[in-house]
Every structure is written in C-alpha cells, then in structure tokens.
Amino acid sequence: MSRVPDAHFEARYQADADPWRLEPRWYERRKRALTVAGLQRERYRRAFEPGCALGLLTVILARRCAEVIAVDASATAAVAAAQRTEGLPNVTVGRLSVPDEWPQGRFDLILLSELGYYLDRPTMARLRDGAVARLTDDGELLAVHYRPAVEEHILDGDQVHDILRAASGVRHVLHHVEEHFRMDAFMRNGMA
C-alpha cells in the first residue's frame, strides 16, 4: 500500500466531526502554538497547508500569511475547515490529495503537519520533492509529526522527518524533538 486511502479519512470524519480530538486536547493546542512559533518569518505571502483537517491551524496561519491555500483529502473535513475560516478572505479551502494533486503556483510557506506518516517511503519522498519544487526562492517547508507508532500509520514521525532531511535544494534550519512530536524546518538554499 503506497498510502492510507482517502476514503479512510472521509469515513473517520463522517463518523465523528473531530476524530482525533484536535480541538479540545491540550497536546494539540500546545503543538499548534509551537508549530506557529517554529515559523522562521513573521509574515508570508502565500502558504499551502495540505491535510488541514478542521482548519484549526489554518485560522492561525491566516494571521501571518497574505494568502493561505488549505486542503484536505476528506471532503467532510474540507467543508468543516471552510466553515471555520468563512470570515477570512485570505483563506481558500478545498479538497485535494497530495502528492498526486497540487494547487497552482509557488509558495513561500508549505506546512506538512500530521500528514507524511500516512504514506509509504516512495510516496513520502514524492511529497517531499513536490513540496520543495513548489517553494519560492525564499520558501520555507515546516513539518510537524507525531512520533510514536500508530496502527493506522505506514511510517512513524521520525521516519517521515528522516525522508524530509534527505531533500535536495533546501537547508535544514530548525530541529525540535519531544517525546510525542518532531518539528523540522527547511529553507530554500538561496535564502540568506
């Protein structure tokens, strides 16, 4: 299996509006705050957030970005994220499944959060390469993933980040590891 099927996520969101308890759990709220603290710049022109889930992080990104494109493989999750961000004119939410589908254009921020471990190694490498190819010359790729093994994950968070660290065309600028999650940031090599 190259990836957990999109239908798996759709079924999870249809059965439970917040299947991973992203909104009420302190762990998730703290991780969102640390994710935003891990951003290397105060402002961004154009951000891409695949796997946006319910749009909780999307709302925070909208405060720092002139434009945010947020997508999820689950149509139900994308609708929930669109409802959450309805009053934010700089946010566009849709249904899209990376690495097979990408929005148009390039981005100075791509955020891969809790997404990579649903892919096998070759598909994760395609996601990495696709993301790097879509970064602007001053672009940043920020990744945050849960580290412990989970039955529905194909990879664990450390394996995902090891694949990301093998990227060419970017340099590693942030490495943060805790018991339950890991965060790494990469900048285009041309960035001073």
Structure description:
The chain is α/β, with parallel strands linked by helices and 192 residues long. 32% of the residues lie in helices and 29% in strands. The chain has one domain (6-188): Rossmann fold (3-Layer(aba) Sandwich). Strand 2 (65-72), helix 4 and strand 3 form a beta-alpha-beta unit. The protein contains 6 helices and 7 strands.
Estimated share of beta-strand residues: 25-35%
CATH superfamily: Vaccinia Virus protein VP39
The count of helical stretches stands at: 6
Rg measurement, Å: 15 Å
Quote the average pLDDT: 96
Specify the CATH architecture.
3-Layer(aba) Sandwich
Instruction: Please state the overall shape, judged from the principal axes of the Cα atoms.
Output: globular
Number of strands: 7
Largest sheet: 7 strands, mixed
The residue ranges in which pLDDT falls below 50 over 5 or more consecutive positions are: none
Q: How do the helices and strands follow one another from N- to C-terminus?
A: HHEHEHEEHEHEE
How do the strands of the widest beta sheet line up side by side? 3-2-1-4-5-7-6
Q: Which structural category do the helix and sheet elements fall into?
A: alpha/beta
In the CATH scheme, what's the topology name? Rossmann fold
N-end to C-end Cα span = 40 Å
Domain count: 1
**At the first level of CATH, what is the class?**
Alpha Beta
Fraction of helical residues: 25-40%
